[in-house]
Amino acid sequence: MTAVTAEPKNEAEKDDATPSVFKAVECLTKGIEVPLPHGYWFRDKDGQTADNLIWVD
Asked: Which residues contact 49 (CB under 8 A, 6 or more apart)?
């Protein structure tokens, strides 16, 4: 497997701005994750609190 398609090794690598095929495919299949402003949160369908949204259109 080439490095460009490899899954990130940790959260820091996943969240950095370096583009990769893996990140592009993840956004297309799972949606774009958008953080909410500081202090805002919501409860999901299971009652868990979340401070980010995953946008799938």
From this structure: 41, 42, 43
Q: Of 53, 1, 6, which is closest to residue 26 (Cα–Cα)?
A: 6
pLDDT digits (tens, 9 = 90+) for 6-56: 777 777 777 777 888 888 888 888 888 888 899 998 898 899 898 887 776
Contact partners, residue 17, CB within 8 Å, separation at least 6: none
Q: What is the DSSP letter of 28?
A: H
Distances (CA, A) of 7 to 28, 29, 32, 39: 15, 14, 17, 31
Return the ∠ at Cα 44 (arms to 25 and 57), rounded to 5°: 35
Amino acid code (one letter) for 4: V
pTM strictly above 0.70: no
